[in-house]
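Sorry to interrupt, but I need a hand with the structure work. Please put the record directly below this note.
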Amino acid sequence: MRSSARSTFRHYLGRHPVKLLVGSALVTTASLLAVVPPRFIGAIIDDVTAGAAFGSVVVLALGIVLVSMGEFAVRGFGRYHVIDSSRRVEYEMRNDLLRHLQTMDTAYYQRQRIGDLMARLTNDLTAVRQMYGFGILMTLMTMTILVFSIVAMLGVSVKLTLISLLLIPVASGTFWAIGRKVHRKFERLQAQFGDLSTKAQENFSGIRVVKAYSQEEPEIASFAAINSEYVRRGIDLAKFSGLIWPAMAFMIGTAVLMALYVGGIDAIAGELTLGQLIQFVAYLYLLSWPMIAFGEITNIFQQGWASLLRLQEIFDARPAIGDPLDPVGAPIRGEVEMRGVTFAYGGTLVLRDVSFRVPAGGSLAIVGPTGAGKSTLVNLLPRLFDAQQGTVLVDGVDVRRYPLRSLRR
């Protein structure tokens, strides 16, 4: 199923290539602009230290303002295109899921819980949309800022850059360990949300029975128990996902301290100017956002992927009843016949060796207590179910040779 989910992910990702390409290009441009202001800040500090003319400082300050405004505008347009594509994917996937569910046979819905299906088409689909939207957007922003910041840092000091990046392997291991936990716990949380939705749906649809037999209090207690478990699993997930941001903030703070210590020594020794040291620290703080964002990206993709796997279960389901390969196209007159028909719901036998024939235009009375199989007998004609044994014929032709639309029209 995971390979099917990967194919589904790529399929919807490729539905709006122009939006994604334009958004990616704009986000990349914005990230490139983001590394310019620290260079200007370093130049301003060096100019002030060297006693340069006030006019040059003003020009650099205006440059920072203009570049920052340009970055803001470009990043905003890039964000719009990526988020817009994710909304379109959500719309198309919801339609495709409903279209696929419409093809499923009646037995499928007897096996599934309606509340769980509703949870998948709402809660899980929202998580998938977040993965296609903010997940991809933050990945683009993070990777481009990371690359451009490291290149800019190398231009200032190779030694300081290597020292600052020593913690990246530690961060990667942290993401991997926490991410696995988040994925499993989010799957359990979504499954519990399905139970919660099912319980609510059962109460709403069966409210007359609940009221008739005074079952309000037991149903409230049952719902509260399921809801409490949902809250417990949500808190359990929050404990792990909440570890990522503090861990990354600690690593970034450690990297800044190391850079200030070593860079301060180099500045005193004359190997770096004060402006270059401040410029490097500014790049390091610029780099801190991608490092911290890795944690949020991990959460979004782990939760989105867990939800996509749940939706893939719907996509992978195939109807047990479908149109024949060689359908009969003759118009139906209405003669009905059953020969030795046997049918069971699971292990419960409902019909056993039933045989009869009703000519076109004729009638047949079928009587019996509730659960005797009267409705089941009728449901075999339009193939809402198929008989496990025996044959159902219309106009002398097995109903399995007719197109479903002809039988059910």
Q: What stands out?
A: Residues 2-316 form a domain with the ABC transporter transmembrane region fold fold (CATH 1.20.1560.10). The two ends are 36 Å apart (CA to CA).
